[in-house]
Amino acid sequence: MAAKSNLTNMLLVLTGTCLICSALLAGIYSVTAEPIAQTNKNILMESISAVVPDGVQISDAKPLSIGGKDSEYYECSKDGSVVAYAIKSEATGFGGALTLMVGITIDGIVYNTSVLSHSETPGLGANCTTDEQFKAQWKGFDPSSKILAVKKDGGDVDAITASTITSRAYTLAVKNAVEAYKNIKGE
């Protein structure tokens, strides 16, 4: 014989279901939290290593404000002297936040850039991670002798084909990192 459907029975079943689901989620979280944190740390360290010279020691994260947003940077030392900085910078692209790691040498030259995360359109703006010509122009970019803006806006940066908004966001993130570098250096 089936249980009579009433408010009390429905509340008991709903409460029991919620408790079981909550317990499952808590258990899964406790099992996956550490591996996820370790994976994120590995991705961050790989990104920093990609944007600074080889063989440097990377400091712990140091807080920084870029464009009114909280961020972080890392000092990269070799033989006890800082040789570069890795600066985490974010701008808003077509699909949302575009987060970069920007490596800047002690003399203010952009050593390299790396995309940490993005929400750009696959096949268009997402090409900021795969377009070799676009990525190559950031290696050794000297903001003291070049204009940090896309060519369409009078700058020296070649935009990704059909992705001007993403290219502008990428350029802005690099520009913000350069400004942050100047603040770190006290310029």
Can you tell me about this structure?
The protein is an alpha+beta fold. The chain is built from three helices and six strands. It has helices at 7-51, 132-136, 164-185; strands at residues 57-58, 62-66, 69-78, 81-92, 97-105, 110-117. It is elongated. The termini are far apart. The mean pLDDT is 91.
Defining key terms:
187 residues, alpha+beta, six-stranded antiparallel beta sheet, 3 helices, 6 strands
Beta-strand residue percentage = 15-25%
N-end to C-end Cα span: 81 Å
Segments where pLDDT lies below 50 for 5+ residues? Answer: none
Major sheet details: 6 strands, antiparallel
Radius of gyration: 23 Å
Q: Tally of extended strands?
A: 6
Count of DSSP-assigned helices: 3
The SSE string, one letter per element, is HEEEEEEHH
What is the approximate shape? Answer: elongated
Average pLDDT, rounded to a whole number, is 91
Q: Helicity, in percent?
A: 25-40%
The structure class reads alpha+beta
